[in-house]
Design brief:
The structure holds two protein chains of two kinds.
Chain A: E1 5-16, E2 19-31, E3 36-40, H1 47-54, E4 62-67, E5 70-71, E6 79-83, H2 94-104, H3 111-124, H4 140-152, E7 158-162, H5 170-186, E8 190-194, H6 198-204, E9 207-211, E10 218-223, H7 238-254, H8 261-264
Helix pairs in contact in A: 2-3, 2-4
Chain B: H1 3-27, H2 37-46, H3 48-82, H4 84-99, H5 102-112, H6 117-142, H7 146-154, H8 159-196, H9 202-212, H10 216-245
The chains are: A alpha/beta, B mainly alpha.
The structure holds adenosine-5'-diphosphate (ADP) and magnesium ion.
């Protein structure tokens, strides 16, 4: 069995007017089907670049990015994406926004089946009754929920979330964490979540990857036990506190604010 | 349209006309200084056939110039919006071209295409009005959030799909905003040509004949007619905007 996502020895540099900017160097990742990985690291280290590699929007200079053991050669419609900016189209209703990918990805769904699929997802994330509203009539958290539905509507194998809750207030964000667990129960996908919130990482993921500062390599991998739905109390258990302490320490190393473990030893 | 929304502008118009009339009478200005609204009626009835013909000529040439400006402006806007290289190359050129007062271009165009009065007039109407359209379309396209592109491209959408589904509709509010400006500009262009190089056609020529005959009420009547045509065309654009970009109305 191949892992769902496998990244091996990836190096990548952007060509800029002032010369190449190395962004990734020694990126490794392996994630089984149905898994959920959270990627954390200093800002500007190359996290979004990682998502663009997995989604096939870019090819790495060196190394391999594979889905199902198959090298990613270009965009593939088996990927769904959502970003910090929900970018909903203002001239479409929420329902039509969610259905957008179905207009592009070839599928055999009839019009009614598409509407049903979109309505089902909207009710799953708690947006029942908002189908005919315009994006501007929704709050930031609701828009992010709709954006999540759009990313899922074509049943992608891989769901990529690039800091999707980063711009939301703390309460709305925690609400959305619960929603994510609900969605994970009902839909089958392999998740990649970019985040800068360590609590979010251990609450949602079964694997947390810490990237070093730019150029990023995989610096640390943490396995999170017990990944089923749970309430926020779990973030205040001793196990959670320990994981958070480890991650915080790793982030400090990545930022260069603490000596790396090798240097200490 | 509700009674109120018709009543308010109508009363504003009446108040404006009364003030104008009052101003002229209070100062005892003769007609050659400033005509009053009460002089306009006779001027219109005396020359109503001329007004009909000339208005039509001014209107159709303005509209054709405007349509040309829409086609060329949108094309240039697309070039500059999608290609960084094209933007860097064309933008300074367009700005420079736009900065030239069109009154100076009128005699040049009139000499270049002697006798082709319709063509010349349309050309000036076009030249004066395509710039805001080109700029707004290019800004609309180049400020498209990269996330849209990523979402659609990751699903395998072509550039054309991205343009039709997202870039084009997203640009419509800016486009119509620019079109409202362009309408007014196109009228200025048409009239410039008609006044500076009169061939006895259009409201500009009628204005010019009023000048040569010292028929001041006629000149003022032409101004009012121009304002009226401008308003009509402006609201045609507003109407189209409601249909095609009504969603941007918040
Ligand atoms: N298309 C690009 N061209 C040049 N440099 C880029 C490009 N995209 C990102 N970068 C640079 O690469 C680095 C990593 O970017 P990114 O992957 O977006 O980081 P992160 O998501 O971790 O904040 C940043 O310094 C960014 O400025
Ligand atoms: Mg990023």
């Amino acid at each position: 069995m191949y892992p769902m996502i496998k990244i091996e020895g990836v190096r990548h540099a952007y060509q800029t007017p002032t010369g190449p900017l190395p962004v990734l160097d020694g990126l490794e990742m392996s994630l089984d089907e149905g898994g959920f990985v959270a990627v954390v690291g200093p800002s500007g280290c190359g996290k979004s670049t990682l998502t663009r590699l997995v989604s096939g929007l870019m090819k790495p200079d060196e190394g391999r990015v594979m889905l199902h053991g198959e090298i990613v050669a270009g965009p593939r419609s088996t990927v769904g994406m959502a970003f910090q900016n929900p970018v909903l189209l203002e001239w479409r209703s929420i329902l039509q926004n969610v259905m957008l990918p179905l207009e592009i990805v070839s599928n055999s769904l009839s019009k009614t089946e598409r509407v049903e699929r979109a309505r089902y997802l909207l009710s799953l994330v708690g947006l029942e009754g908002f189908e005919d509203k315009r994006p501007s009539e929704l709050s930031g958290g609701m828009r992010q929920r709709a954006s999540l539905c759009r990313a899922l509507v074509h049943k992608p194998e891989v769901l990529i979330l690039d800091e999707p809750f980063g711009a939301l207030d703390a309460f709305t964000r925690e609400d959305l964490w619960q929603t994510m667990h609900k969605v994970k129960e009902q839909e089958s996908f392999t998740g990649v979540l970019i985040t800068h919130d360590l609590r979010e990482a251990i609450f949602l993921a079964n694997q947390v990857i810490v990237l070093s500062g730019r150029p990023a390599r995989t610096q640390y991998v943490l396995d999170v036990p017990d990944t089923g739905p749970r309430d926020l109390e779990h973030l205040y258990t001793p196990e959670a506190a320990e994981m958070l302490a480890i991650l915080r320490h790793q982030i400090e190393i990545a930022q260069g604010r603490a000596p790396s473990d090798q240097e200490v030893a | 349209m509700s009674l109120r929304s018709a009543f308010v502008p109508a009363s504003a118009l009446i108040v404006f006309l009364l003030l104008w009339e009052g101003l002229v009478r209070a100062n005892g200005w003769p007609n050659y200084k400033m005509a009053s609204p009460s002089d306009l009626g006779p001027a219109f009835t005396k020359h109503w056939d001329l007004f009909l013909v000339m208005s039509w000529q001014t209107l159709w040439r303005t509209v054709v110039g405007l349509l040309l400006a829409i086609v060329v402006g949108t094309g240039l806007g697309m070039l500059m919006g999608f290609s960084r290289l094209m933007r860097d190359a064309l933008y300074p050129l367009l700005v420079g071209f736009n900065a030239i007062p069109k009154a100076t271009v009128v005699p040049i165009v009139a000499l270049m295409f002697v006798g082709q009065h319709d063509f010349n007039t349309i050309l000036i109407a076009f030249m004066i009005s395509f710039f805001p359209i080109a700029v707004s379309v290019s800004i609309g396209l180049s400020t498209l959030e990269p996330e849209y592109r990523d979402i659609l491209r990751s699903l395998g959408a072509s550039q054309a799909t991205i343009f039709w589904k997202i870039a084009l509709p997203k640009t419509l509010p800016e486009f119509f905003g620019a079109l409202k400006v362009a309408v007014t500009l196109a009228f200025i262009g048409t009239n410039l040509m008609e006044i500076v190089s009169p061939h006895g056609r259009g409201l500009g020529a009628l204005f010019d004949s009023g000048k040569t005959n010292s028929d001041y009420p006629l000149m003022f009547a032409v101004l009012v007619m121009l304002a009226f045509l401008g308003i009509v065309l402006f609201y045609v654009v507003v109407f189209l905007e409601r249909i095609f970009a009504g969603w941007a109305d918040r």
